[in-house]
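Technical note accompanying the year-one report. For the benefit of new consortium partners, we illustrate the data format agreed upon in the data management plan: each record pairs a sequence with a structure-token string. No post-processing was applied to the example shown here.
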Amino acid sequence: MKMFEEKWTAWLDDQLSGNELTQFEASLPDLEAARAEKREARKLGSFLKEQLRSRKMSNEEFFSHQVHEPGQDRLGGRFRAWFGAAQPPWRCSF
């Protein structure tokens, strides 16, 4: 048996059908409010998909982005965890 949250998510995604759909909608205390929330969730999803589209980068842009990515401290973070230093000595700038 699915938990309420699983059924709610399936209902929002139109994954319920037949008897399961009928039973779930009957179990909701305010079906119209739930349907309004479903419409709002769909509008938000559409808005986010529209606004958060990734753009294609050329090879040069991608490489530059990876090299200059703010907060990128992958090796330094591991080094700090292992040795307690902020950076490995070979990464220090003079």
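Partners are asked to follow this layout when depositing records. The mean pLDDT is 76.
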